[in-house]
Structures are given as C-alpha cells and as structure tokens.
Amino acid sequence: MDRRSVLFAMVGLVSAVPLAHAQPAFDLGSPDQFRLSELMGGEFAIQTSRLALERSRSPAIRNFAQLEINEQTAVAAALGATPGNVQPRPDQMAILQQLQGLSPGRAFDRAYVQGQIAGHEELLALNTAYAQGGSDPRSRAVATVAVPSVQTHLSMLSSLRRGGHV
C-alpha cells in the first residue's frame, strides 16, 4: 500500500471518530481559510521541491524533495484540490525566487532545507491548531493526519542539516 492510500485510509478513519468540540485557544478562521493556508503551504513545498529535484546534487535531498511532492499532492487531494490550483503567498514566492537565483550546490541545498524547515514549522502550527479546534470535520481529519507527518519531515530535515548534506 502506498503512502497516498494510507493517508486516505487514515483520513477516513479519523473522520469516522468524533473529536471533542473543544474551543480553540485562538481564532482558527473558517474552514476555507484553513484549506487555503494548507494548500498555499503545500504549493510552496511542491514548487521548491521540484526545483530541488532539478538543482540538488545530494541524493538525500532529492529523495526528500520527491517525498514532499508526493505527500503534498496527497494532502491536496484529501482536501479536494489538485496542486497548482493556488499559488504560494508573496513571502513564499520571494523564497522560491531566491532559490531560483541560486546555482546547484551546497548554497542551494542549504537554502532549500532552511526554507523547508520554516515552511514545515508553519504547517505544523497550522495543522496542530486546526486538529485541536477546527470546525470542519474533513479538514480536521486531514490536519490530524498531517501533524505526525510534518513532525517526521522536520526530523528528516534536521538530519539533513546535521548530516552534512547542506
């Protein structure tokens, strides 16, 4: 069973389990705001990872980039979207443009990993908050499933940074 099938199966399972209706500690916005933020962050990850597949010489970074593309495609599908339907935020586009200006090599790899860490930290905060207090059951299920995946990705990115791949 591939990761996408596992993600969809987990979303189905989590959707079937009633979650507590706890009030969020802060305003999470509407389900549409969560979905848009999630898709923008995912699109940023996909676009920068496609660039990493083209420019990185590190097999470990290229493997992570492909994993990220696959997972963000699955998350978009779980939210009823396809990659490319939204654009990253302007600040994310600026990071993408900076990456596009770098030549292949360690400087590119370092900037890619740093951008992925920042993006994943943001996705972790977004998904954690929505999983705990979001109003839409489907989006809450996606967020619940995404949290451990994002945590794993942050661990992988830290290992890439520590392991001399950047």
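Above is the first protein from milestone M3; the second protein from the same milestone is given next.
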Amino acid sequence: MTTSSPVSAPPAGPCGARLLTRAEDGERLHALLWRAGPGWRMISSAVLGGGIGARGWVLNAQVPHGYRRTDPDRHLAELAAGAGLDGSGVGLMTAADVSRHARAADGGAQALVTAGIDVRGWAAAPAEGTAVPAQPGTINIVVAVPAALTDAALVNAVATATEAKVQALLEAGHDCSGTPTDAVCVAARAPAPGERPHAFAGPRSLWGARLARAVHRAVSTAVTSG
C-alpha cells in the first residue's frame, strides 16, 4: 500500500484516518487507516479483530466487486502487514469505494462511514431460506468516544450506532435497515487507574447521544453522496 502525505496532525479519532491505495488483480483499490495507538478498547463485528479488547488500529479495506476469497481474515491481515501495521487491530472489508467516505463529529465523538447500498433490505426478512454467503460489508461504521466505557456500555454503543444508521437510512428514503453484511467498530478510551468507566451508551446517555448524532450525520452523508 502507499499512503497520501498528511497536511496536518490528524485528530485523535477515526476522523483522522488516512487514505491508502494499492494495486490488486489489476485494480486500483483504497483503504482507510486509523492508527489509534495505545490506550483504546474496541468492540467490533469485524472478521479480523472482532469482539472486545485492546486494539491499536482500524483498517477499512476496499475489495473488488464479486470478491471470492474465503479467507477474509487472512486477506485483511496481509493488507495490514503491507500497511506496516502490527499488534492487535480491527480489519473491515467493503466493495464500496472507501475514498468516497463520510466523517462527522459531535462533542468529541467521531464517526467514519463508508457505504454501498445496492444490496439492502430489512433485518427480519419475511421468508425462509434468505441466507447469503459471507461477503464484504457494505455499510461500515467506525466510531470513537474519548471516554472509558464498560463492556456493557460498549455493547450498548453498538446498538446505538445501529439505531442511528437505520434512522439515517429511513430519512434518506431507503426502505431498509441496512445491508446483509454491515459491520461496526466502536472505540473507547481505556480507563485510567482508579477511573470509573461510563456504564451506559444508549441514545440518551452523554456519550451515546453524541455517538448517535455523529453516526447519523456520517451515514446520512455517505448514503446520499455515494
């Protein structure tokens, strides 16, 4: 991968992610990289670095349409190594052009969203047998708050981010709750010694409300400009 040169110091959050480029199978593809560094805990549904734990970076990589690899975790690990990353991190995939992303911030919460919504629908499908093979996610949300959250609050934050995504989709005129392969990553600062983490991140909590507004704004921009 090659990187663009930063023009200034990026903010300490996903809004400071840098755009990377690479050539793969004759195509020019992009990725967004946020080097969070130490001191962050993340929760994610990603195939690489998913779950809850300390993570130092987030890579949201574009792959070709019709992606056929059956080892996306290994592929993402290869891309991360090619970008000079080491240690634990989160790797997301999408067939959307991640150079056409959206960023938003609210009261310290930051959101970075990439969106491709050609294949979309409602989570509770009315018919049986609607399973689809695992494919790169098409709406990827990376959001961070500069505060410590408990494990339960991190789970709460994922729900809040998802609710904000659905709100933005409906307001944009899309009759859906998302795509079958959406992914999310929520980052929060690791607690300092003796610090009591926030126990809630619902849409009416301090950080949940800020996170929701940032995600809502970023998703709204991504789905109307993509």
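Note on the second protein: The CA atoms of residues 111 and 215 lie 5 Å apart.
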